[in-house]
Amino acid sequence: MSNKDIASILTTIADLLQIKGESRFKVLAYRKAAESLLGLGRDVRAVHAEGGLEGIPGVGKAIADKIAELIDTGELAYFERLTAEVPASLASLLPVPDFGPKKVKLVWEALGVVDLAGLEAAATAGKLRTLQGMGERSEAKVLEGIAALSRRSDRALLGDAMPAALELLELLLQAGGVERAELAGSLRRRRETVGDIDILVATGDSGPVMQAFVSMSRVGRIIGHGPTKSSVEFVDGTRAQLWAHPPERFGTALQYATGSKEHNVRLRERSLKAGLSLSEHALAREDGTEILCATEEEVYAALDLPYIRPELREDRGEVQAAAEGRLPIGIEATDIRSQLHNHSTWSDGKASIREMADAAIARGLSVLAITDHTNSLGIVQGVDSASVRLQREEIDAVRAEVGDRLIILHGAEVEIKADGTLDFDDETLAWLDIVVASMHIGLRHSREQVTQRMLQTVRNPHVDIIGHPTGRLLGRREGADLDMDAVLAAAVESGVALEINANPMRLDLNDIYARRAVEFGIPISINTDAHAPEHFDFIEYGVGQARRAWVQPEDVINTWPSDRLLAWLTARG
After folding, report:
1. For the residues 519-523, what does the mean pLDDT come to?
2. pLDDT-based confidence at 148, cuts 50/70/90?
3. Residues in CB range of 290: below 8 A, 6 or more apart
4. pLDDT (tens digit, 9 = 90+) per residue, 323-378?
5. What is the DSSP secondary-structure string of 76-124?
6. Helix (H, G, I), strand (E, B) or coil at 56
7. Alpha-carbon distance 238 to 252, whole Å?
């Protein structure tokens, strides 16, 4: 059993205990142990052999004994007793939005529902509305939630895959004979979710690096192992492939492994028109001779094209734009001078205003906006129109302490309420230096209703930025069903900025709508939505999303000099 297998069983135990109504602390103990196994970085079987299971964070003696039993026998008597009492398939109902453990227990006991298919059938037949605390609206939401689940992918978030991949790159670069190592595939193109981790190395002797790859302690299973390609599954379930190529052929190999299928087809069409045949190994002439390319730049140059950045290689007009000299100037993280959507301990942030300011200064920022949640967002303790004025006193004190090293703006992330109004009155909104307006609640409202809420906010002259416009959480919650054509048209009229939220769980706006926004001349704001100092590092994900959207530095208000940014805010009132 791998770490992932055991973690899955522990998670299911936690789910079933929660459905039973067991102690919250008991449920959390199993969840914590499962998380620790997935993040262990070593095969738990090796840890067990060393007698170190209780040294794993969150694993006490009782759970350690259960892990040992699973490793030694492949079975767990406790799990079998529990699933005899509560069907294991009930755990599949918990991911349905707004369908918690109490409702799962209710439909199980009252209707005999034990899985998603049974829940969908009961809802379709109108049986859920007969249960206490549920009605037609609840029934409709269940069906919507099941449909949303069917659209989810098992692909990893970019923010989860990238750190692991970069660490893997460093390890491979230390292997003997490796001249170069690069990420490839959707990870290098910075797609919001990725499948496997793909890595290419340039080496004249692949043996040492291939052996180092399959021998890593985190490898749970070797899928394939050869001189030019090896595939493994890590203990957390992530899969990775390593390809080795001679240095003189590395450019064509990396280009082939990075571009989307459609982008590569477009390049092959161009190469054929030039009398060449493009493969991962080389560019071949009609007489059979080869053009070897050690770099991707050489590949594109051989096709009479400038270098096309990885994030653009999706066949969205980039090859034609390159041929016509119209490729965008790619925005870099170093272009970002301001962070305009951030939280402190005044709401759900983990650091004080001074700590956030120090972190911003350390990262070379010129402007920091403190935009804590407002109080109608019930899941956090936010500021109201009275406490936000008390917050100004602390902000003024920090301003005095940091001096001219940082401009601190006092703002708020104001909740767009279910009726389309904002948490603060116009007087308070006008008094703030900057206003970010966001939706966290009512995302499942009808398309017409949720769009009207957003349009009302976009047209409010005191709102400067629309934060994470759709409200999506990748892999967990779909965004609101907004009529984006209407929203973009209103944003053009009002001049409001639309945010690319750099948190890798959001990346909202997505690349498609961000590109359309820029084409309409709508200002873009790339923000980390930082709730702790380390979250400022999310900026790389936001910038990657912006590059995918063909966003240029001038399009982004965070790149503007501070005097231009302040003048823009002043002009907005």
Report:
1. 97
2. confident
3. 281, 282, 283, 284
4. 999 999 999 999 999 999 999 999 999 999 999 999 999 999 999 999 999 988 76
5. -HHHHHHHHHS-GGGGGGTTSTT--HHHHHHHHHHH---SHHHHHHHHH
6. coil
7. 26
- Retrieve residue 10's tokens: 């522990």
Cα separation of 11 and 9, whole Å?
5
Beta bridge partners of residue 556, listed in sequence order: 524
pTM across the whole model = 0.84
The neighbour count for residue 131, using CB atoms within 10 Å, is 17
The string of pLDDT tens digits covering residues 468-483 is: 999 999 988 889 999 9
Q: Which of 131, 139, 143 is nearest to 102 (CA)?
A: 131
DSSP string, 149-208: HHT---PEEHHHHHHHHHHHHHHHHTSTTEEEEEE-HHHHTT-SEESSEEEEEEES--HH
Which residue, chain included where needed, has tokens 């052929």?
249
How many angstroms separate the CA atoms of 267 and 67, rounded?
Answer: 51
Average pLDDT, the chain: 95
223: which 2 tokens? Answer: 């899928």
